[in-house]
């Protein structure tokens, strides 16, 4: 057995599978973090699609208005399409808005608490080390972080789902507009 330095205590975990549990907790945190990234990528793709679509609409808007004249049905569909598009964009943008959950215990794994709740760098390092040695505190804080990150991911995916629902409605209305325009200009 190696001699330990004076005053240093090696961690004594209750569970002989602690390393596996730590990997399991961190694996869960990484999985949820990847879900958060995926929701933001989806939001970015939706916004990119709208950017291309709105550029196309803007480019052809004048010609369409000249050809359509005063057809009230076309303007009603256009207004509904614009409303669905704006709501979809709104929910996509909400996905990017940071959600800081601060109603929970202070955690050495949350960046906001690290810089605001544990004093200076040395005090934080000491607290982090103490928690790392205490299996109950370590797993409690990791579990809380998994819960908080899951809550954030759920909110982001809720916004993405709403954005996609309004995107589908906007596409249906757009096809109705194209059909209306096509039938009107051919007659």
Biggest sheet, open or closed, and with what strands and sense?
Answer: none
Question: What count of structural domains?
Answer: 1
Strand content: under 5%
Cα-based radius of gyration, to the nearest Å? 27 Å
Which class do the helix and strand fractions yield?
mainly alpha
**Average pLDDT taken over every residue:** 88
The proportion of residues forming helix, as a percent range, comes to over 70%
- Indicate the low-confidence ranges by residue numbers: none
Instruction: Give the SSE order as H and E letters.
Output: HHHHH
- 3D shape: elongated
Give the strand tally: 0
Number of helices: 5
Distance between the termini: 93 Å
Explain this structure.
There is one protein chain. 79% of the residues lie in helices and 0% in strands. The termini are far apart. The chain has five helices and no strands. The chain has one domain (18-186). It is mostly helical and 187 residues long. The longest helix has 52 residues, at 135-186. It has helices spanning 18-68, 72-96, 111-116, 121-133, 135-186. The model has no long low-confidence stretch (mean pLDDT 88).
Topology of this structure?
Blueprint: H1 18-68, H2 72-96, H3 111-116, H4 121-133, H5 135-186
Helix pairs in contact: 1-2, 1-5, 2-5
């Amino acid at each position: 057995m190696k001699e330990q330095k004076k005053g240093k205590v090696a961690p004594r975990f209750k569970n002989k599978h602690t390393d596996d549990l730590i990997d399991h907790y961190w694996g869960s945190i990484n999985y949820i973090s990847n879900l958060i990234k995926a929701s933001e990528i989806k939001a970015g793709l939706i916004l990119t699609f709208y950017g291309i679509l709105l550029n196309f609409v803007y480019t052809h808007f004048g010609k369409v208005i000249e050809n359509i004249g005063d057809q009230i049905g076309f303007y009603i569909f256009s207004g509904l399409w614009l409303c669905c598009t704006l709501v979809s964009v709104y929910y996509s943008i909400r996905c990017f808005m940071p959600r800081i959950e601060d109603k929970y215990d202070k955690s050495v794994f949350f960046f906001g608490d690290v810089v605001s709740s544990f004093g200076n760098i040395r005090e934080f390092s000491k607290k982090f080390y103490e928690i790392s040695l205490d299996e109950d505190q370590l797993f409690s804080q990791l579990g809380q972080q998994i819960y908080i990150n899951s809550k954030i991911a759920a909110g982001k995916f809720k916004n993405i789902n709403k954005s996609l629902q309004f995107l589908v409605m906007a596409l249906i209305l757009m096809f109705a507009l194209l059909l209306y325009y096509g039938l009107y200009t051919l007659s």
